[in-house]
Design goal:
The chain is mostly beta strands and about 110 residues long. It has two domains: about 10-50, no CATH class; about 55-105, no CATH class. It is built from no helices and nine strands. The protein has strands at about 10-15, 25-30, 30-35, 45-50, 55, 70-75, 80, 85-90, 100-105. The chain is globular and about 45 Å long.
């Protein structure tokens, strides 16, 4: 008997939300952070992307340099550069100056 069976490629993972989630929702499960590509109705099987590049709302007061590690601030629903109290989201892939509404982020776990 094998000790592991292949399930899926891994760029997305199955997810069943407790409430309706629109496409583009950031989902935090422990230390796993993903983003919905499609709407997922409550209590229905869907998936979240755990790989890929996304434009995500960011803190307007912060400038974020390309290559910087970024984190998800679930309280304010935005990308920040502060690790404390937040979950690792990935790395910024292009500069996002102050007053820019989004950061382009490559998800990484």
């Amino acid at each position: 008997m094998t000790s592991a069976d292949y399930v899926q490629q891994g760029d997305t993972v199955d997810f069943i939300p407790e409430t309706d989630l629109p496409a583009g929702s950031v989902v935090v499960q422990g230390d796993l952070v993903g983003i919905t590509k499609h709407d997922i109705p409550a209590n229905r099987l869907g998936s979240i992307c755990v790989e890929g590049v996304f434009d995500i709302n960011k803190d307007l007061t912060q400038a974020i340099s390309a290559g910087a590690r970024v984190y998800w601030d679930a309280t304010n629903n935005q990308v920040v550069t502060i690790a404390t109290g937040n979950k690792l989201l990935g790395k910024c892939v292009r500069n996002a100056p102050v007053d820019t509404a989004t950061a382009r982020v490559r998800l990484s776990q």
